[in-house]
Queue: 2 jobs
Job 1
Amino acid sequence: KAALAEGPQVERVGGTPARRGALAELREEVDALRLLQPRLARLLQAQPEILAEARWKDLERPLGADPALFLRSESGALRLRGWTDRYTGDADATLRLGDRPQVRVRAKAAGDTGQVALPDIRLDGLGGQVTGSGSIRWRDGLAGAFELAGRRIDPGNLDPRFAGRVDFTGKIGFEGNGNFRVELPEASGTLFQRPLRASGTAQRRGSP
């Protein structure tokens, strides 16, 4: 809950129960909050805080003309707590891209107006689990970095030709100018019914 102070009068502004499905209704509530913003003189005195939660079911969204880029989410939830200068949040959702197998993604976040840290990322699916952490910043230019570890991942879920079981550790970094780098210090397991042991680095340089 948040309190509005404008002259001697103080009002209380409360949210509505969590909605399922139609994100258009959620957008209407966000737009209403934006209209109130110029009137906000004080929110919970010196320590303002907003609690927000969004839930959805059977969400579908195309990410491009290619059917393989059609995103589906059977269910999910996003929770945020705090204010623009400091907030925390967590997300839990099932995702499916095109005809690929469904995965469950969970993450915790903490950030401000210029960056967000993701100290706990978990992906269950593709035959195993991927865990890790990362951060994304957009102040003074977009950039991100992630450290991930996968256990018993079956690449065959993405392409049947690459069936197997792989454990790996890796790092991913990117910048707004198109720079992209993937480091794979170690990968081991089986691939093509043969033992696998590999490491390597791939990178792409963007515009100066």
Job 2
Amino acid sequence: EAAVLYAARLLEGIFRSASKRLNLALKTSETHAYIDALAGARCLDESVRVAAHALRRVGNEVRHVQRSLGEDEHWIALAFARLIVRWYGSDFRGGLQLPKADLSLPSTGYDWLIEKLLHVQTPEEMVDFMPELHRCLKQAPLLATIAIEKAIDLKLWHQAERLIQTAQRMESRNRRILELRALLFSRRGQPERAIKLLSPLKIRPFDS
């Protein structure tokens, strides 16, 4: 848990600093606002944006004792943090702009998995990756939300449903999984089911 909390704090500091370097005037100190503002300014590629939100969510879950961590989730959090540090140190136009070779960062055993998941481009690649991904979910449930979003974006409805069912067995009260099920309904042309699912929580259906 300590590793996840420190990784989440690192995320907060980096995105706050990046926003200040670009003189982005935000009326809130919420980390999600910094992430969205930098994405809106086209400073983040999609993989960094997704990793940042995933790290933010798991940090909040640990901070507010919302669930127990999976056996390897601290390694996933550190892999996300590593990706974000590399973005700030090398790719961010307002950052240090160091050569990647100069950023000597310790690796984790999940770097390859994160890299593969965040950069899947086609339905065929995602389908081929699914067995490996399902094996890793028990040790790191936070991977499920990223995988579900990716499957929905690639219109892999059956695979997205399977991932949602797996995630709900592991985390029956996870609000994000509920939102993603509603997103799946919406993308499949079933907005009335999305509304019915989310209305008890007073969440408006979304399609993003």
